Amino acid sequence: MTLTEKTLLRLGIRPTVMRVKMYQYLKRRQSAVSLVEMEKTFAQKGVNKKTVHKTTFYRTINLFMEQGLVHQIDDGTYIAKYALSDRSHIDKHDKDLHMHFHCTVCGKTLCLPDRISEKSLPDDYEVSNANLVLKGVCKSCRKNNKDEEASAVDQGN
Ligand SMILES: [Zn+2]
Ligand SMILES: [Zn+2]
């Protein structure tokens, strides 16, 4: 049995071919992904040599969310995006609460590594989900911008 299959089973998810592929895909990604993007990628790769039905993605992602493996991010673009939750330090009393960063140039949304403490909540309040999104320009877009500025100056001289 592969590590992925073990991870899924541990979370009570039966590791079908499609679920394993989707988990691995999400794991490889640096940024959150929309269902449409996911469908496109899988269509290009020709997974299982047949078209995967839209509802399969939808059902799989919902199952992953129910089991706490994936979380949905609303980054203000009206398109829901999904990313893997960090299950490494999660127990029953602890959730993977963190902020997100949305780049207004390339449109990418990513999970930030620092976790938000549930201790900031008053007693007897329970948080189930955090959807904080910081907006700005990501590292690679900033770099591209600087390069462009530099070449513009060169041409000016
Ligand atoms: Zn960017
Ligand atoms: Zn996240």
TrEMBL record:
This is Transcriptional repressor. Keywords: DNA-binding, Repressor, Transcription, Transcription regulation, Zinc. The keyword Transcription applies. Belongs to the Fur family. It comes from the Bacteria. Pfam families: FUR (PF01475). Gene3D superfamilies: 3.30.1490.190, Winged helix-like DNA-binding domain superfamily/Winged helix DNA-binding domain (1.10.10.10). InterPro entries: FUR (IPR002481), Fur_C (IPR043135), WH-like_DNA-bd_sf (IPR036388), WH_DNA-bd_sf (IPR036390). The keyword Transcription regulation applies.
